[in-house]
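Hello Y.,

Per our agreement to keep a running log of every chain we model this quarter, I'm adding this entry. I've kept the format consistent with earlier entries: sequence first, then predicted structure.
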Amino acid sequence: MLTDTLDILAETQPLPAWHTVEPWTPTAAWRAVDVYESERVLFIDYDGPHPHTLMAHIYHVGGLMIDKLALLNPGAATAWDPLREPDEAPMPLQSAPVAEVLADLAHALRTTDMTWPRTDDEDFCDHRALAWSRCRDYLPEWPEHAGIPEQRRRQLVEDFLTDIGSDDDVSRSLAELFLDYGDGYIGAGPLCWSPGEVMLLLTDWLPRKAVLDADQRNALPFLLRRWLTFALTQQGIDRQWIGLVVDAVDTFLPEFHDAFDNETDWGPGKQVVAALSERGVDLTDRHAVDDAIRQLNAEQLAHRLLP
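Predicted structure for the entry above:
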């Protein structure tokens, strides 16, 4: 658009002499990913009039989003590993193709713009336009969510029940619930749990979406700890870093109990399921559920029409 505008202006008046600036060329790229695949840092080195490094810090918990963009001194990636503390989960830096890292950055910029407005955050906004100018040509197609294959899903549940030595209805139902959350909300995969994912499960997803009976609720802390250990062991995570995720259960359990009992936080689906359960409706009977929902809707409409 700018080029077309300049062509029109050139037909009516002389244009000033433009100062030619050499383009910045990406020369190397690196990516650091934590062991839980819940966050990563991208580094892209640029050559040109003023060599520099473009850095992006990206979180994957609760949706893909960029936390920080920055311009650093050239070669800043080499300082990454020494900056990590010994008690932090490993996040090793690895060289990667420039085009691949720029595509990663472009997709993260796209999802951040769509899902989390950051207009008041200087760590993001100051360099957003510059980052887009560097990576827009590498923007990939939207990834398709295939979901976990049904056979793999059944096998994971059976392996978990064998691991804990129990095959009762409560253990099976909670294992399937944890898989539902992981498959639908953990972007890196249903077994890639992190402390942040445990926090979201206990303080947000379960209170809003899940209906648990007394037995399920009592068994939840124990079975969630065992599921986290099982899932991360399947991922090949060292036991030291599994412990950090398991410890998050105790950290967020008090908030879970408060939120789970607060009906104002329930989502519409959970409200309907709870109402049907209170009426003794068989939730496995499609016709009974349809009839009960029609009756429930009629009652709610009547209440709204009453003076």
